[in-house]
Specification:
The chain has 13 helices and 3 strands; from the N terminus they run H-H-H-H-E-H-H-E-E-H-H-H-H-H-H-H. With 311 residues, it is mainly alpha-helical.
Amino acid sequence: MPKSSAERVAAYRTRKKAEGMVSLTLVVPSADVALFSQFAAQRREKLREARHPFQAPPQQWLSMLAAMTPALPPTAESRRKRNALGAPITRAQTLFMALLKHVIDLGWPAGLPLGSEQELMKVHGVSRAALRGAIRLLEHHSIVRVQRGTGGGVIVAQPDLSATMQAVSVYLEYAGIAPRDILATRRTLELAALDLVIERLDHEGERCVHDQIQAEARLDGRAGAEEWLRFHFLLADLCGDPALRLFDGIVLQLADAHSTFHRRNRTDRDRVVARIKEYHREIARAIIARDRERARAQMADYIAGIWTWLA
């Protein structure tokens, strides 16, 4: 049986309590509501900056996202407003940006119900058509999901990283990206990620690197590409930079898509696998020793060697 909005909110609060957060109800003069809201927004922004020091300011990438948002049929109102690319801004797009900013201000609480269609129409004073247009845009960017049926509504979603990487990879294939471009970009991104890993590595990170090398020791030429990419995806995760994690993942996928590794005979694959293990072990040792120069040299040599396996 579908959960009601109240039940979903209660479940959300239970999850947040388990994460060390508490629900707090304030009774303040109506004239001070804006002041409290501003203080809370500033506090959330400081926490986000502490977690992701290299993240672009929300207003900056909100403007970028608005420029990239798929255009909807213009209305009389939208013909008077245009975005950074000169396309008409519809009421649905304006509401889309307002709802996205609301989700960001809340701290992007995945799973939190934003309300039913009727509730959102009433709160924002918009028509059903404008609201549904905004929701389609929010769904397109994996910002919300819609739960149908009794007790359903618009719910904050968690964006799908793999879907984003796949979409960008498809576009780059369409644009005719060449193997030399893939490797040049991969080298730049992986070396940048490596620097951050060495700078930020803790005991838990060391354990993850060690465990990955141990897991690779059992592999041979029959292993799939995803097995060998796990070491590089791990480094992208450990670097702590969401942008590097995204772009590194994209070039790793592209490099694998252009690889001829699995078209080679078993003897060749076993030989290459032995070299991959050796490189990964040396890179891991240099990382754990915080030897930046040795780690970078090993990674650069490893990526240069991939050239012979790209088509």
